Every structure is written in C-alpha cells, then in structure tokens.
Amino acid sequence: MKIQKITFTILLGLMMVAAGCSNKGQSQKPQEETKNSKTNISYKIIEAKTLKVDHIHGIGYPGNDNKLYIAAHDGLKMYKDSKWFETTANLHDYMGFQATEKGFLASGHPQKGTDLKNPLGLVQSIDKGKTIDQLAFYGQKDFHFMAASFSGNGIYVINEEQSDKLAPGVNYSKDNGMSWKKSEFKDFTADSLGMIAVHPINGDLMAMSTRSGIYYSEDNGNTMKLITNPVMVTALTFMDNDLLYSSVEDGNILLKTINPKNESQKNWKIPFLDYDNPITYLAVNPKNKKEIAFTTYKNDVYETTDGGKNWKVLLKNGKMEQD
C-alpha cells in the first residue's frame, strides 16, 4: 500500500492530544549563559516540590545523564532516586521527544516570551536541555511523532503535509537531519500509522505499532513485515534486538517482548491498568536494561529498576506520588 493512501490516524487519538498542546509563543536562541531573553532567568535543574503534568510527549533515558526524562507541555521533567526535578527556564512544549546517547532530539513549540521561531523543527540538546541546536526545518515544521537510534544513524519522522524536502508519510535521515529519504512501506497494509521504534545501534532497523499489529523493517521502512497477530499495539521500543511493546487485547492492557527474527514472545507482569488507560510511551535505559519506564493515556508514569519484577508509580494522573 502506498503511504499517501493511508490516513494519518494515530492510535487512540494521541495525535489530537499532542495537537492540542500547540504553543504559539516564541522561545530563546541557545546562549552561553542560557537566560530567557525577556525574563532573564538562568537555566537550572532544581528539585520539584510539587508536580502536575497535563500532557506527556515522550520519555527516555539520555546517555549524558542518569535520570528518566519526560517531555511535558511545560518543559522537561526528570526523575531519579525518588525525586522529581524540573527546569527553571526553557519550558518548551517538546514533541516527539527521543533520548539519544549524546542527549535528546525533539520537535514542538517554544516557550512564550523568548525568541526562538515557532515551530522548532528538529532540534537537539547535548547539555540536558540548557541549549538546543536547530538541525532541520527550523520555523517550518512540528513533528508530533519521531524516533531515533540511541547511538546509531537513523532519525524517522511522520510528515503530514507535502513539502519540498519531505513527502507525506514516514521519512528518515542518516546524517542527523541534513538529508531525507522517504520510507516506501512496501507490504504495509495497516490503515493507520502509529509509534515508531528504532534499533539503538543499527538505525536501519525500525518498527511501527498500528491498530493491526507491529510492522518490522530491516531497510529503513522501505519493506515492512507484520510480525504479530492483528491486535492493537499502542507503544513499542527496542530492548537490544527484541521489541518491548504494549497491546490491548480482550480489554486488557498487556506488556510483551517479541523477537523480530523468530517472532517468539514473552509476557511481562505489570500493574493492572484500566482498558481506557493504555500505555502510550515505553523506554528502556540502554545503559542499564533493568531500568524501564512507561506512561499511560491518563498521565500515569511507572518505572522498574529490577527488570520488571517490581514497578513503582512515579506519577498518578500526572501528579507526584507521595512515599
């Protein structure tokens, strides 16, 4: 099926949620002192005494820090050792957040009151969000859904509109956003696009969740293969060479791993989730595979530090859980 004929429907209305978070303001240029140009507030990471997260646009474990990062409507939130942290400035509405070995990639909209163009296009930070570098489409595009290899060469975006450099559908770059090619999606028969996962080392390997299962590719999405039963898959990420994913089956929220080569699967035990509160984002720490986190539609955040034996609630309905 040609990708142009596929409706740009993202699972469970996640695109509508993300689109509702547009920030029409302007934001800052990267500066050495990193101060908001109008408020003159220095960028610091401080412990959060209270926290309320209304929207989550991605999670991950950046390689230049030891914390779990959450991209929220009002900037980055970070978690480590039973403490939440937030930033004093650069409260950008990051979309498509992707943790990488050097830091993170994102798109989205800048914080109001500063002087970055809106939308951000594709940006990168290698200093924990203190500054951001514009890689591509600055002031032109907002990618709600992106994916990137942790340490390899491979960035993928879902483009909703025709443009000079990007065709509609999935496009990928192997040179950090300098040039782009379209993923042809041969043998892809799903009627919607979903979340993308990229192998942490080999950026040619990618997978997509859809309402009818997981499609897997070894050639940047040019040819796709359905590797699961036709079930709704809401989130996925690579765990080494396996895929960790969440599905909705018979009204139950499940977490599983699958080997794309032989399609063998394993079920994971997770806390009970209501059928209307599916998993939306998954993250595995490439530096410590026992650290895994997921978010839900209602902005719950769970993390395990022992490979899934025990799970801790970090946020409930977007609010901090008190020990």
Automatic annotation (TrEMBL):
InterPro entries tied to this protein: Glycosyl_F510_1955-like, WD40/YVTN_repeat-like_dom_sf
User: Which PROSITE patterns does its entry note?
Assistant: PROKAR_LIPOPROTEIN
Which UniProt key words apply to this protein? Signal
Tell me the first and last residues of the signal peptide: 1-21
* SUPFAM superfamilies listed in its UniProt record: Oligoxyloglucan reducing end-specific cellobiohydrolase
**NCBIfam families linked to this entry:** glycosyl_F510_1955
What is the protein name for this chain?
Exo-alpha-sialidase
Q: Which organism is it from?
A: Bacillus salipaludis
